[in-house]
Amino acid sequence: MKILVEECCLLIIDVQEKLIPLISNKNEIIQTSLDLIDIAKNLEIPILLTEQYPKGLGKTVKQIRDLIPENNSYIFEKTSFSCLGSLDFEKTLKLLKKKQVIIAGIESHICVMQTVLDLKKINYDVFIVREGIGSRKVEDNKLSINRMLSQKVFLTNIEMLIFELVRDSNHSLFKYFSKKYVK
Predict the structure, then answer these.
(1) CB-based contacts of 100: which residues, under 8 Å, 6+ apart?
(2) Are the CB atoms for 75 and 51 separated by under 8 Å?
């Protein structure tokens, strides 16, 4: 199954000020989140962003917050580990009428995994960006990836995602994405 621009949205889960310093691959997650936001903005893909109990864990890291566009994006505070525990989140997701969700965020074995399992339960196609998820412990991240893959979740990376979304070297954004993201 290919990711389709007209069928997808981007979800970035809980990349927050007080939690990110504890994550094993924090720099990669921040950079991947920034890259995904840039890709989504350029392709006009809706962006959903969540914050787990921001009073305690802080807001989303500044670099990411600053890049979120004013239009076609949605920010949700939550206390449930699954994003679908927030009625506002679930309502917005349904209103977007997208069937595919591209996901990055933390922690992969808690909020990411519970969200993924809930999305699968209600028949969404879920694409995890490998370099965009992580946990405090590397082993927890690996374990969660294995569990999510067992539920028919798709694992992807930035380069695969770009080529699926643009489909053709004649696409108006192909050269921009290739120069910026293909290494």
Answers:
(1) 3, 4, 7, 8, 9, 124, 125, 126, 127
(2) yes
Q: Is the pTM of this model over 0.85?
A: yes
Find out whether 7 and 46 touch, Cβ atoms under 8 Å: no
Residue 140 corresponds to which tokens in the numbers above?
């927890």
Q: Report the distance separating Cα 123 and Cα 10, nearest Å.
A: 16
* Distance separating alpha carbons of residues 164 and 59, to the nearest angstrom: 32
- Are 36 and 10 in contact by the 8 Å Cβ rule? The answer is yes
Which of 126, 14, 116, 129 minimizes the C-alpha distance to 64?
Answer: 14
Q: How far apart are CA 101 and CA 48, in angstroms?
A: 10
114-170 per-position pLDDT tens digit: 999 999 999 999 999 999 999 999 999 999 999 999 999 999 999 999 999 999 999
| Order of strands, sheet of 8-13, starting from the edge strand that comes earlier in the sequence | 73-78, 47-52, 8-13, 100-106, 125-134, 154-156
- Evaluate whether 141 touches 109 at the Cβ level (below 8 Å): yes
Q: Which amino acid is at 7?
A: E
